[in-house]
């Protein structure tokens, strides 16, 4: 049996839509019919610029996926055919979301609550991991805000800043800070997203279209008199964003980021400020232990409304719509407008 898949044959070459075999689930795996796939900047930058090291070609990209269980591999328990699941595919095994079926380990997925659609579920996996690992995981992986998902943890009275709050990652960072009880959650984002960002937990929105990045530290002082004990940097494409975020951080504070390897400022040790990067995979050490807990808890967080999926922009034409849509990430958050781009591979012509 064959399926349609979008393949990058060699580095920096165009996508090719082709027929490939439907995989057979191995021990501990599920075969999933993909009903929704989210698009991420990494998909574009790997295809266009060969961004990640040690990529093995040909590769099927796609880091966010949701669908229905079609077949169970040997030894799988707790799942049945027809279950709705969402997950981060294993790109190294060409099990990415840019295809109509994939095999996925049961260790790296969760069931979709009934109130959540496939498209909404596909907005979560990679971007949620990018926020939750550096925020909640224990030191030295992350800031250690709540490594066990204890509902009683509270940072009441503390203030936090999210730079890039309207991005997919930033939206999850805001919600996670609300989850752990921060009293003030300030975000630097476009004012047009203000009402939505406040609805998910932000207490103040500093308009990035009228307040220059360089003016952010002084502007924060007009918003709150409290020290900023935590800064999350969701938008990390420019070095100056990291520098400004760090300058907003109180001595002894923590700065988790969406950057895989942020530079440590010279005065970090002397001022007690800590910076965390993230490689948003629950398959690699040292993320595995926390990742297992995350997958066990994420469905309940969604079911209880603690975490709300991103708002969705549907990409038409299934896999055939990807190549023309991914270049929008060249414009950063301005090219996406606070939405998560999602498609249904089953709609591929």
From TrEMBL:
Record Pfam families: ADH_N (PF08240), ADH_zinc_N (PF00107)
Record-linked InterPro entries: ADH-like_C, ADH-like_N, ER, GroES-like_sf, NAD(P)-bd_dom_sf, Trans-enoyl_RdTase-like
Residues in Enoyl reductase (ER) domain copies: 12-343
Example of a GO MF term: oxidoreductase activity, acting on NAD(P)H
CDD domains attached to this UniProt entry: enoyl_reductase_like
Domain of life: Eukaryota
PANTHER family recorded: HYPOTHETICAL OXIDOREDUCTASE (EUROFUNG), ZINC-TYPE ALCOHOL DEHYDROGENASE-LIKE PROTEIN C2E1P3.01
Protein name: GroES-like protein
């Amino acid at each position: 049996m064959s399926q349609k898949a979008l393949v990058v044959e060699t580095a920096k070459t165009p996508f090719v839509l082709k027929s490939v075999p439907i995989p057979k689930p191995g021990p501990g795996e599920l075969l999933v019919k993909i009903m929704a796939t989210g698009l991420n900047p990494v998909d574009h930058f790997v295809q266009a610029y060969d961004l990640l090291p040690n990529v093995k070609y040909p590769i099927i990209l796609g880091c966010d996926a949701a669908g229905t269980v079609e077949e169970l591999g040997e030894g799988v328990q707790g799942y049945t055919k027809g279950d709705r699941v969402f997950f981060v595919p294993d790109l190294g095994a060409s099990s990415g979301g840019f295809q109509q079926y994939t095999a996925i380990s049961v260790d790296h997925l969760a069931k979709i609550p009934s109130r959540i659609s496939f498209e909404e579920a596909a907005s979560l996996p990679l971007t949620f991991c990018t926020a939750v690992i550096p925020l909640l995981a224990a030191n030295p992986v992350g800031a250690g805000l709540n490594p066990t998902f204890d509902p009683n943890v509270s940072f009441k009275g503390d203030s936090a800043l999210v730079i890039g709050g309207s991005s997919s990652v930033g939206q999850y960072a805001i919600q996670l800070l609300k989850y752990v009880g921060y009293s003030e959650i300030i975000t630097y984002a476009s004012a047009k997203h203000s009402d939505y960002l406040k609805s998910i937990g932000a207490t103040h929105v500093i308009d990035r279209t009228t307040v220059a990045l360089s003016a952010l530290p002084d502007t924060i002082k007009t918003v709150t008199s409290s020290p900023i004990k935590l800064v999350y940097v969701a938008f990390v494409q420019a070095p100056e964003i990291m520098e400004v975020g760090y300058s907003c951080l109180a001595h002894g504070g923590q700065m988790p980021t969406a950057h895989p390897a942020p530079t440590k400022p010279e005065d970090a040790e002397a001022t007690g400020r800590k910076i965390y990067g993230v490689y948003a995979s629950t398959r690699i050490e040292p993320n595995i232990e926390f990742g297992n807990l995350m997958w066990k808890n994420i469905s309940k967080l969604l079911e209880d409304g603690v975490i709300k999926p991103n708002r969705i922009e549907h990409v038409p034409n299934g896999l055939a719509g990807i190549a023309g849509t991914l270049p929008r990430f060249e414009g950063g958050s301005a090219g996406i407008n606070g939405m998560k781009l999602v498609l249904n591979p089953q709609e591929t012509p």
